[in-house]
Design goal:
Layout (H helix, E strand, L loop, with lengths): L2 E6 L16 E3 L1 E6 L2 E7 L6 E3 L11 E8 L13 E7 L5 E8 L2 E9 L2 E4 L9 E8 L2 E6 L2 E7 L9 E3 L1 E2 L4 E2 L2 E9 L5 H12 L1
């Protein structure tokens, strides 16, 4: 499997891309011991928090995959949260934002990909412990996998803007992730079934 980028708190405990060995810029992000490992990172609610990779990592065109380990609290919302969203990763604001939970349109707290007004809505993973998430792009085909099960598919074509890739933050509305992230990886191809199976087994360890 050829990676463009990987941050894994379990292995490193520092804000370094393990592929390029370059440093990233964290803002109000801290490591915290969790049941998934000693160094998952935690993004504090109500602060401007993010990890800026300082590079454009998601290809503008062509195939790629994103893998993440996430753990969201069971948020009890009172009334409409009014576009609140918890981004796992973004590039160019809502030109490409992959949310762990969002309240917008028909996504009532669900996983959601937003790419230039084209949308893929998945399941609700809040309050369900650690989840293994994979998003793949193969041509115009987008697939979302949760715990190694196909959760949602969509077909649309669009280019992704050239901008700094952000973890835990989207410049669209200054949206912030609230919860734990243990791993984020970007691959330069659409992961095969065999590769997804292997990554899920690594997640379970």
């Amino acid at each position: 499997m050829s990676k463009i980028f990987e941050f894994n708190g379990n292995r490193q405990g520092t804000f370094i891309d393990s592929v390029s060995k370059t440093a990233m810029t964290p803002t109000n992000v801290t490591f915290k011991r969790t049941e998934k490992g000693q160094s998952s990172f935690f993004l504090k609610e109500n602060l401007i928090e993010q990890i800026n990779t300082n590079r454009t990592l998601i290809p503008e065109t062509g195939d790629f995959s994103i893998e993440a380990y996430i753990n969201l609290p069971k948020v009890i919302e009172t009334g409409a949260p009014n576009f609140d969203s918890y981004p796992i990763i973004s590039q160019g604001g809502d030109s490409f934002s992959f949310y762990a939970a969002t309240w917008y349109g028909n996504a009532n707290g669900n996983l959601r990909l937003y790419a230039n007004y084209q949308i893929l809505v998945g399941t609700d993973v809040r309050g369900k412990g650690w989840k293994h998430i994979i998003l793949t792009r193969n041509g115009n085909n987008w697939d979302l996998f949760v715990d190694n099960e196909l959760n949602k598919s969509a077909i649309f074509s669009d280019s992704i803007p050239s901008a700094d890739t952000l973890i835990g933050f989207s410049t669209m509305g200054s949206r912030k992730f609230k919860g734990f992230i243990n791993k984020v990886a970007i691959y330069n191809h659409s992961l095969s079934e065999q590769e997804r199976n292997q990554l899920y087994q690594e997640f379970l360890q």
